Amino acid sequence: MRGWLKATIGVVVLSGVLVGADRIAVGVAEDEAADQILKSGRMSQKPDVSIEGFPFLTQVVAKKLDDVRISSDALTVGEGKDKVSLHAFRAELSGVEVSGNMSSATVDSGAGSALITYADLSGLLPPASELVPNAGRLSLGGGTRLSLSYGGPGKIKASLGPFPIGDAAVHSKGDTVTVDGFKLSSMASLLAGVSDQSLAPISFTLSTLPAGLNLSSVTPQEDGLRLGFEGKGIKLIG
After folding, report:
1. Pairing relationship of beta strands 147-150 and 214-221 according to DSSP bridges
2. Helix H or strand E segment including 16
3. Measured between alpha carbons, how far is 108 from 136 in angstroms, rounded to an integer?
4. Cα pseudo-dihedral 115, 116, 117, 118, rounded to 10
């Protein structure tokens, strides 16, 4: 009986040691993966990386991680005039094949999301003077931009100072986002001296998207434009 008790205690202690070693190893791997993702240029700042699944060490032996999650709250994507901040980026990556020293990693499939605030989205559009005919009548300055907000399912609405401009649908194709021409409100039509007019569509391309993912959807929400991402056969590191 006493021998059985000693054996049981030994197994429990050994299990605890192994679990502890596994958790230490996964923590080290997560930090190294975050560093390598940043060095590879797949993200503009070091992300938080979480490697799911237990035990971790058996996944290391197989050199394939079942579930890796990446997050960051302040990324920058795009170039030049199309440069913009992404908020609340979250991604889940499945089937991540890694090298022994974490110098390379490819992903079977991944999906994620992020948010562009309406204030930041406004910065991607030309100044109001280039968009709204006769906008200068309001004396708001040549660099004044449209104020954007949620306009209902699939739409955003714009205003110029206290004056409503109109609403427009938003959609994406590839990594390019298009805001269909704002349909001018009666106030905006009066301002422009026209009736029943829509502004020309506006497009911008979001390059250098995080984690090697591609843009799959754009959805207007109360707090901004929600972006959806997806990808297969992604080169994450190396």
Report:
1. unpaired
2. helix 2-39
3. 52
4. -130
Q: Which residues of 42-73 are buried (b: 16+ CB within 10 A; e: fewer)?
A: bbbeebebebeeeebeebbeeeebeebbbbbe
* H or E stretch covering 30: helix 2-39
Give 3-state DSSP helix, strand, coil % of the chain, rounded to 5: 30, 40, 30
Residue whose C-alpha is closest to residue 140's, from 162, 109, 112: 162
| Region of residue 56 (phi > 0: left; psi between -120 and 50: alpha; otherwise: beta) | alpha
Closest CA to 229 of 71, 120, 9: 71
83-134 per-position pLDDT tens digit: 999 999 999 999 988 886 778 889 999 999 999 999 999 999 888 777 766 6
Beta strand ranges found along 123-223 (DSSP E)? 147-150, 155-160, 163-173, 176-179, 183-184, 202-205, 214-221
What is the C-alpha end-to-end distance of the chain, expressed in Å? 56
Angle at alpha carbon of residue 71, lines to 99 and 224, rounded to 5°: 145
Read off the pTM: 0.82
Is there a contact between 183 and 166 (Cβ–Cβ < 8 Å)?
Answer: yes
For 202-230, write each residue's pLDDT tens digit: 899 998 899 999 999 999 999 999 999 99
Rg (CA), the chain: 25
Segment 150-204, tens digit of pLDDT: 999 999 998 877 778 888 999 999 999 999 988 777 765 666 555 557 778 889 9
